[in-house]
Write a structure and sequence with these properties.
333 residues; 3-stranded mixed beta sheet; 7-stranded parallel beta sheet; single chain
Length: 333
């Protein structure tokens, strides 16, 4: 059974802040606040085709700080979504939203839970208080901890979102953020390397030369490590990198934005695993790498990067497919 999100973007309207990196209009590609009637129409239109294809969907209110928008408007959106969860539970399995950690308390959770909410994602961005302050987030890591435990206490799925390469950030801070997410019991994680957009404070800092984000190489290494950490903790990373968008491409001044970023990071993990394995095999320099056909491009790497790098380390390999195998290496002679 496939699972998807029907995303409803509720832009900036709920947010009294102006974080250094944020231009919600560009990120979501949407500035219009959807009416409950429009949401109803979308869910109604999608229903027959989702049902025919056997796809289940969560209704996802993303794009801003959902729990900070006007209460009447928020409950109207939730009531509309919940009516579909109640009347078509074979397709619409629940409701999720994204919000700020300081916009979660027991009152708001009462409202969300009484209207079918199943998952809340917090834009934590970093668990380093200095990074949060420099990027004018207006909340602390303690707010993330408090909100996370309130969400978990309600039995809701907890999603935590982090960014890498913010103003003042360091790779080791990101690794510490991931550790804290794991100990908070995150059920899902999203990782967004910073994209510097025109019209934001980061854009100004970047243009003045006061701020440089991580390079693509640093980001790929870092995010490969983060994927590994979350995987070992059994936490799905449901998104790595911003969705492709013409708006972002047009307004981007710098940062890491690659349509296949996740593939690059997963490929880096294969490289690290192959190198570690090959280095443990005495004098052997030629290997047969067995892997499932779906992994071949990640084993080889973009532009054969893994092959080239291993060659530089004195190793060579050929690939043989083996269904269901992630990685198995044999000496070639
Ligand atoms: S809290 Fe979220 S929506 Fe508000 S300015 Fe910051 S990133 Fe943008």
């Amino acid at each position: 059974m496939r699972q998807t999100n029907i995303s409803v973007f509720v832009p900036h309207i709920g947010c009294p802040h102006r974080c250094t990196f944020c231009d919600q209009r560009t990120i979501s590609g949407e500035a219009h606040a959807p009416t409950p009637e429009e949401v109803e129409r979308t869910l109604c239109d999608q229903l027959p085709s989702l049902r025919a294809r056997g796809i289940k969907a969560e209704i996802a209110f993303f794009g801003g700080s959902f729990t900070g928008i006007d209460r009447t408007y928020m409950t109207a959106l939730l009531d509309t979504a919940n009516a579909f969860v109640q009347s078509a539970p074979d397709v619409y399995t629940g409701i999720r939203c994204s919000t700020r950690p300081d916009l979660i308390d027991d009152d708001i959770l009462d409202i969300l839970c009484s209207r079918g909410m199943t998952a809340v994602e917090l834009g934590a961005q970093s668990m380093n208080d200095e990074v949060l302050k420099l990027n004018e987030r207006g909340h602390s890591s303690a707010d993330v901890e408090r909100a996370s435990s309130l969400i978990k206490a309600r039995g809701l799925s907890l999603g935590l979102q982090m960014m890498t390469g913010l103003y003042g950030d360091r790779p080791e801070y990101c690794i510490e953020t991931a550790r804290r997410f794991i100990s908070l019991g995150a059920d899902t994680v999203r990782i967004y390397p910073t994209v510097i957009l025109a019209g934001t404070k980061l854009g100004e800092l970047y243009k003045s030369g006061e701020y440089r984000t991580f390079s693509e190489e640093t980001t790929v290494n870092l995010c490969a490590g983060l994927l590994r950490m979350f995987d070992e903790a059994g936490i799905p990373v449901i998104r790595l990198g911003l969705h492709a968008s013409r708006d972002v491409e047009e307004k981007m001044l710098g940062g890491v934005y690659h349509p296949a970023l996740r593939e690059l990071c997963e490929s880096r993990i294969f490289y690290e695993d192959m190198l570690a394995d090959m280095q443990c095999r005495g004098d052997c320099r030629k290997f047969i790498v067995y892997t499932d056909p779906s992994n071949i491009s990640k084993v080889v790497g973009q532009k054969k990067e893994n092959k080239v790098r291993l060659h530089e380390n004195g190793f060579d390999f050929i690939i043989k497919t083996e269904k269901g195998t992630r990685l198995r290496i044999e000496n070639a002679f």
